[in-house]
Design a protein that fits this description.
Layout (H helix, E strand, L loop, with lengths): L1 H12 L2 H8 L24 H12 L7 H4 L10 H14 L5 H9 L9 H11 L3 H17 L3 H13 L6 H13 L3 H13 L6 H13 L3 H13 L6 H13 L3 H13 L6 H13 L3 H13 L6 H13 L3 H13 L6 H13 L3 H13 L6 H13 L3 H13 L6 H13 L3 H13 L6 H13 L3 H13 L6 H13 L3 H13 L6 H13 L3 H13 L6 H13 L3 H13 L6 H14 L2 H13 L6 H13 L3 H13 L6 H18 L6 H21 L6 H13 L3 H13 L6 H13 L3 H13 L6 H20 L1
């Protein structure tokens, strides 16, 4: 011990800066550093400087604060080899070696640079620390310091350099560093360190293989991970349940739940003991991919394998079904979960209540909230916020306030989210005084509003005409250090328009443009949407064009709305211009916008432009759906371009798109016109009838094969076609079939049949149908009366001729 103390004293002597700081009254205070109290007396006779060092060491009391080492550079202590070696030795000698990690953190995170290499430090330490366990401890502390500083590559380089000098980390530290590198998601580095560990003579064990499998899964190397499982067995290292769980979790987390399911079934077959956690990982992955039937089957398999289903597995299923709005099945699973005695939690309750609200069932959400509360289940602040929002949406502001007070009574302090919900509820109901009062209470209770809160209140002021108050609120935001952003202004503009304050909205937008603030997509979109909200599609279009010429574009949702409104107002060329400007600015319209524009051109009978945009949609890699095909087919049929309609029908089927009832109805019209064109000048009426009946019979058979049932419109189209072909009895049979299925004929159905009777000269039966219409409360329009009148006229002419 004496010799080590003497060497330690000499180490300080060789560093004059340390001596200088120790011997002077400087800001560098050693009162915060744990040093050795009892150095041997032999050290005191080495030299005057050594004696001074030892006296200082004697005078210092151990402490737990070692921050002084980390900012010693600013206090005049040179961060050199001797300094760090001395500090490490002092910590070991004083029994405070567990404080090495923060010391090494200062070394690793140093921004000043070091004039020595880490191997040199450990070479020096090896001369003072004669026990290999201490050096090993120091090296482990260094590795942990690299981890704290999040420097995996630097840690790797340091370990390699130290190993070349004969300093090797412990297996435990290697595992720690290996796992740390996996978390860095640098697969190349992980593999390099894996090989390095083998060069240290560390044989891969199950733990290291498991870590490597996790890294490979994170890097998307699933085949390599699977091969590694085989390599484990070749090395007689049997994968355990943790290894398999890691692999399965990696697969499911990366959208490979089907493969995860295969692996799970295989390890069950091999007899590996599987717990509910592994099942839960696969069920969770399947639910994220909306493969609910497979997930539920796996839940049943758990029971068959005598693995009790847990709350997590049910939670995944319930959350998944709620995400796709299948509330009925989610509730059934919840009841099943409770009936099996599996404890539920507030997460599951939150999913269910949120699903109720998402589906517009706020009243039902509150009923279930009360049921959950009465059951004694603990409900957290998030669940209360859902119930609070439901009350506000229903206008039950008194109940909402009562619920917020109930929260306080249960020790839950409402936060800014709860207050914002209340403010939004009052704004929705036009109670701006109460909304402002809640806002003031927030401030009194030191609950700091965020940007969402301000935006909600500002939007409420604007919607209800309190423009001055909205501007004052924005000024107040600035005073509180929260600058209104584009979202704030867009909310104000949008709500001014919703409140029909277009003049104020335009003034605000113009003012923002003048100040150079309005150069934001969200603001442009808000103003365009504002015009559309007020039915000013022309103004919206003009603003859109002006912005595009300036190099700005509104968002895709606004573009879609603008196209839709222009098409509604028959400004189809304007909608087409919007499309062209979007494409010029490299923004592709969505499928909904294409459908609207093509439909509008079809309504106009402009099939050239309709076909042009249809082809453009296909060329851009979008897939036309059955609605779009039907729209285009109907457009061609209306202008008697029958062949084009037939070609589209064939093309649709070749793409694997199944026709729906509307498509079949359009095709009936196509077949009727096709027959009429083919036999226009032919006297062979029987052949014409047979051709049409063959076509519509095939279509009906195809519909039945596809499990499609004709609706009223489809039946009417069939009846009309048969009547026009002179197949009155077939038309009557379909009419009766339609009635037998519980479908109610409309005015057009009766008119088609009445027209058929009139063509056959059976005016009395036509008149009986009209009386039946009147008795059933169906309005008889001028078309029906005109057909009946022409039928009577034709009947009288026939009587005269006789």
């Amino acid at each position: 011990m004496a010799s080590r103390a003497l060497k330690l004293s000499k180490l300080f002597v060789r560093n004059p800066r340390i001596i200088s700081n120790l011997s002077q009254s400087s800001p560098f205070s050693f009162s915060s550093v744990a040093l050795v109290r009892d150095l041997p007396s032999e050290a005191k006779s080495s030299s005057p400087q050594s004696l001074k060092v030892v006296e200082v060491l004697h005078s210092v009391k151990p402490s737990t604060d070692f921050s002084i080492f980390n900012d010693s550079h600013s206090r005049g202590l040179h961060r050199d080899l001797a300094s760090y070696a001395a500090i490490v030795c002092i910590l070991f000698a004083s029994g405070h070696h567990h404080k090495l990690v923060p010391v090494f953190i200062g070394l690793v995170s140093s921004n000043y640079g070091l004039d020595f290499a880490l191997p040199d430090l450990f070479d020096t330490l090896s001369r003072f620390l004669n026990r290999s366990s201490k050096l090993l401890f120091a090296l482990d502390a260094l590795i942990r310091a690299f981890a704290v500083c999040k420097k995996p590559r630097e840690a790797f380089n340091a370990v390699v350099e130290l190993s070349l000098r004969g300093f090797f980390p412990s297996p435990k530290s290697c595992n720690f560093l290996f796992n740390f590198m996996v978390e860095s998601s640098d697969l190349e580095l992980v593999m390099a360190f894996y090989e390095q560990m083998k060069s240290f003579g560390m044989s891969p064990d199950a733990y290291r293989f498991t870590i490597l499998i996790k890294a490979l899964c994170r890097g998307g190397e699933f085949d390599a991970a699977l091969n590694l499982l085989g390599e484990m067995k070749e090395n007689e290292v049997m994968p355990d349940v943790i290894t398999y769980t890691t692999f399965i979790e990696g697969l499911c987390a990366n959208g490979k739940s089907e493969m995860g399911l295969v692996v799970l079934k295989e390890i069950i077959r091999e007899g590996v003991p599987v717990d509910s956690i592994v099942y839960g990982k696969v069920i969770s992955g399947l639910c994220k991919e909306s493969r609910f039937q497979e997930a539920e089957k796996l839940l049943d398999d758990m029971v068959k394998q005598d693995v009790p289903p847990d709350a997590y597995s049910y939670e995944c299923l319930i959350r998944g079904y709620c995400a796709v709005s299948n509330l009925l099945r989610a509730l059934e699973l919840y009841d099943e979960m409770v009936s099996k005695g599996i404890s539920t939690n507030y997460f599951v309750v939150g999913f269910l209540l949120q699903c109720f609200c998402k589906m517009g069932m706020d009243s039902e959400a509150l009923e279930y909230f009360q049921r959950f509360k009465d059951s004694g289940l603990y409900l957290d602040k998030v669940v209360y916020s859902i119930a609070l929002n439901a009350h506000c949406k229903l206008g039950n502001m008194g109940d909402a306030i009562e619920l917020s007070e109930e929260m306080k009574g249960q020790g839950m302090v409402p936060d800014k989210i709860h207050y914002t919900i209340l403010i939004c509820g009052y704004c929705r109901n036009g109670q701006m005084y109460n909304a402002q009062k809640v806002f003031s209470n927030m401030l009194k209770l030191n609950v700091e509003p965020d940007l969402v809160t301000y935006n909600v209140l500002a939007g409420g002021f604007c919607r209800h005409g309190f423009v001055k108050e909205a501007y004052e609120l924005m000024d107040y935001m600035i005073e509180r250090g929260l600058e209104p952003n584009a979202v704030t202004y867009s909310v104000a503009i949008e709500n001014l328009c919703k409140g029909k304050y277009l003049k104020e909205a335009k003034a605000l937008f113009s003012g923002l443009e003048e100040r150079g603030i309005a150069q934001e997509v969200i603001l442009f979109s808000a103003m365009v949407c504002g015009f559309l909200e007020l039915g000013c599609a022309k103004d919206a279009y003009e603003l859109f064009v002006r912005l595009c010429k300036q190099g700005y574009l509104v968002d895709e949702i606004t573009c879609s709305k603008l196209v839709g409104e222009l098409c509604k107002e028959n400004c189809v060329d304007g909608a087409s211009t919007v499309f062209n400007l979007m494409l010029v600015m490299n923004v592709a319209p969505d499928e909904v916008s294409y459908n609207r524009l093509i439909s509008a051109y079809c309504q106009k009978g402009d099939m050239r432009n309709a076909q042009f945009w249809f082809d453009d949609l296909v060329n851009r890699g979008l897939t036309p759906d059955v609605v779009l095909y039907t729209t285009l087919m109907n457009g061609y049929c209306r202008i008697d371009h029958i062949q084009e309609a037939l070609d589209l029908f064939i093309e649709m089927q070749q793409r694997g798109i199944k026709p729906d009832v509307v498509t079949c109805t359009v095709m009936l019209d196509v077949y009727l016109k096709q027959v009429q064109q083919q036999f226009l000048s032919s006297p062979n009426s029987e052949r014409r009838k047979m051709t049409f009946k063959a076509n519509f019979s095939k279509l009906l058979n195809d519909m039945r094969a596809s499990e499609l049932e004709p609706d009223v419109v489809c039946y009417t189209q069939l009846i009309d076609g048969l009547c026009k072909m002179g197949c009155l009895q077939d038309a009557l049979n379909l009419f009766n079939e339609m009635m037998g299925k519980g479908l109610t004929p409309d005015a057009f159905t009766y008119t088609c049949l009445a027209n058929g009777y009139c063509h056959q000269g059976e005016v009395g039966k036509a008149e009986a149908l009209v009386k039946e219409m009147i008795n059933k409360g169906i309005v008889v329009d001028c078309i029906t009366l005109s057909i009946l009148e022409r039928g009577n006229l034709k009947y009288r002419q026939l009587q005269i001729q006789k």
